[in-house]
Design a protein that fits this description.
single chain; 0% strand
Length: 110
């Protein structure tokens, strides 16, 4: 993937994540009339929103780091082994920081 396309895709992803995070940080539960029976549902909604915020925040950090790698001229190189990240991987996940092998090793350690 060329640098211009990568930058555009990453910037679009960042804007979309920022919009999603802003929506998730709102309190849609507060606009509903509260009843005692809704308390369990409200808690579940809040837990779900927190989980989605965590995922969106992690994704946002990965996109910001990818943009930083673009600026530094190392985008498309694995942050662990410095080998090229496969083009198909970057097409699917423009924020990918690692080659498939290094990413697999990282995930197995978790």
């Amino acid at each position: 993937m060329d640098v211009t396309t990568a930058r555009e895709r990453l910037e679009d992803m960042l804007a979309e994540l920022d919009r999603s995070i802003a929506v998730l940080q709102g309190d849609p539960v507060a606009v509903r009339e509260h009843h005692a029976a809704d308390a369990g549902s409200d808690l579940t909604d809040a837990d779900r929103a927190r989980a989605m915020l965590t995922v969106a925040g992690t994704q946002r950090a990965a996109v910001v780091q990818a943009l930083k790698r673009l600026e530094e001229g190392v985008y498309g190189r694995c942050v662990d082994c410095a080998r090229p990240v496969p083009e198909g991987r970057l097409e699917a996940r423009p924020e990918a920081a690692r080659c498939v092998e290094c990413q697999g090793k990282r995930e197995r350690r978790r």
